User: Which sequence fits this backbone?
């Protein structure tokens, strides 16, 4: 699926994520990352390297609301794998989601790089396929991009390349 960027906007650059099979017209893919289950290191999941969704059937999930890329990914993949998660809550703030996972309130889908690593959160690979997403950089098609925006774009591209090399 290709998503077209809007013609009339007030931005020069935009960083967006997209689920599997999605891309943005005139977008440059910066990073492709696996999406893991994030769980507190102090729970039984803190000892696991990988796990099937059926093994977390009784765990409480903290997810972003519908409409967000990670939530869309969760809803799609959970449905494909016939998995109905137990929700403890929805939260619009990714920082709060990460803190709640750290405090053992529940587990969540945790992108490999873009959410960062925390010593108190363990990332567990999901054995079912399709848990990945991409991060794109879009440049406004109309108008000139200011030099400071171009420098920022170059910084972001360089930074994302360093993350790719950490794989």
Assistant:
């Amino acid at each position: 699926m290709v998503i077209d960027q809007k013609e009339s906007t007030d931005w020069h650059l935009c960083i967006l994520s997209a689920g599997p099979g999605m891309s943005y017209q005139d977008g440059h893919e910066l990073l492709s990352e696996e999406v893991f289950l994030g769980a507190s290191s102090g729970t039984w999941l803190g000892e696991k390297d990988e796990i099937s969704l059926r093994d977390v059937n009784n765990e409480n999930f903290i997810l972003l609301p519908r409409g967000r890329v990670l939530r869309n990914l969760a809803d799609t993949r959970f449905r494909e794998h016939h998995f109905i998660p137990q929700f403890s809550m929805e939260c619009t703030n990714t920082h709060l989601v990460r803190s709640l996972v750290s405090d053992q309130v529940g587990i969540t889908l945790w992108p490999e790089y873009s959410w960062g690593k925390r010593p108190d959160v363990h990332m567990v690979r999901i054995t079912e396929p399709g848990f990945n997403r991409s991060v794109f950089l879009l440049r406004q098609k109309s108008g000139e991009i200011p030099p400071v925006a171009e420098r920022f774009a170059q910084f972001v591209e360089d930074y994302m390349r360093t993350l790719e090399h950490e794989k």
